[in-house]
Design brief:
Blueprint lengths: L2 H10 L1 H21 L3 E11 L17 H14 L5 H4 L6 E5 L14 E8 L2 H25 L9 E6 L5 E3 L1 H34 L7 H8 L13 H6 L11 H7 L6
Antiparallel strand pairs: 1-3, 1-4, 1-5, 2-3
Helix pairs in contact: 1-2, 2-6, 3-5
């Protein structure tokens, strides 16, 4: 079946196509309203090393080494632990992603003391609050680790907020994708039902004999024998059967044949 024939069938069966299209739109609308929305927020923090002993004029923001990248990786692994999510989110559908390189970073990134946080939540305010909770949790975890290692407080590495939690942004991708899938399923089902019904109708039109009795189908299939195969009745047989002898008024040809005026 070609595309043109499919379109022609859908147009001819418009009384089935249009209701199917409306039902598909209704399914998409219901799905869009049932699926909860998602909001996203992000923030950035950076690890800052303490001032070096004897360098009172040194600026900590100018002193970044590869050790800070390792510390950032430790913090990221700590935040990715399964026990962290219940502590920072209030919804089961909330999620977050932590990494030490931005999406725009390419090539050799070198030292990366940054921690990038991105959160998603069905509650707008919760998505921004999750960023603040994660930064505070990472800051506390960093202090506890250094205290466990008996590092002097003056030599503590600090975690400073670079970008405050952004304003929650509504994400339309999830709702649109789910509702679009529901609409597509409805369209496919509608087309399938229309084509199936059309094939059934064509099959019925091609088999009209199936509704006739067996005797009627046999009579239709049995042809009449040719006239040459029908035996001619003799004159004594015609005379013995008055019902088969037509009157002279109704059949002059038969009368002429019986009188010997017409050759056999």
């Amino acid at each position: 079946m070609t595309l043109r024939s499919v379109i022609r069938t859908l147009v001819v069966k418009w009384y089935l196509t249009i209701p199917g299209l409306l039902i598909s739109l209704a399914m998409a609308g219901v799905t869009f309203s049932v699926v909860p929305p998602l909001y996203s927020s992000s923030g950035v923090a950076v690890l800052v090393q303490p001032k070096q002993p004897g360098a009172s004029l040194a600026n900590p923001l100018l002193g970044f080494d590869s050790g800070l990248t390792t510390t950032a990786a430790i913090m990221i692994q700590s935040l990715d632990a399964p026990t962290v999510a219940p502590r920072v989110s209030v919804s089961d559908r909330s999620s977050f992603h932590v990494k030490n390189a931005s999406d725009a970073t390419t090539g050799d990134v070198g030292v990366q003391p940054f921690i990038y946080i991105n959160t998603q939540s069905p509650i707008a305010d919760d998505s921004a609050a999750m960023v603040s909770r994660l930064i505070e949790l990472a800051r506390q975890d960093l202090a506890d680790r250094q205290q466990t290692l008996r590092v002097r407080p003056t030599n503590y590495i600090r975690l400073e907020t670079v970008v405050q939690p952004t304003k929650p942004k509504y994400l339309v991708g999830t709702q649109v994708a789910v509702s679009g899938a529901a609409f597509l399923v409805g369209i496919v089902v509608t087309i399938g039902l229309v084509l199936l019904g059309e094939r059934f109708n064509v099959g019925r039109r091609r088999e009209p004999d199936s509704v006739l009795p067996e005797d009627a189908r046999h009579q239709q299939q049995a042809p009449w024998p040719p006239a040459s195969d029908i035996p001619a009745l003799s004159e004594p047989a015609l005379a013995a059967s008055p019902a088969l002898v037509p009157s002279s008024a109704s059949s002059p040809l038969v009368n002429a044949r019986l009188d010997g005026q017409y050759p056999h």
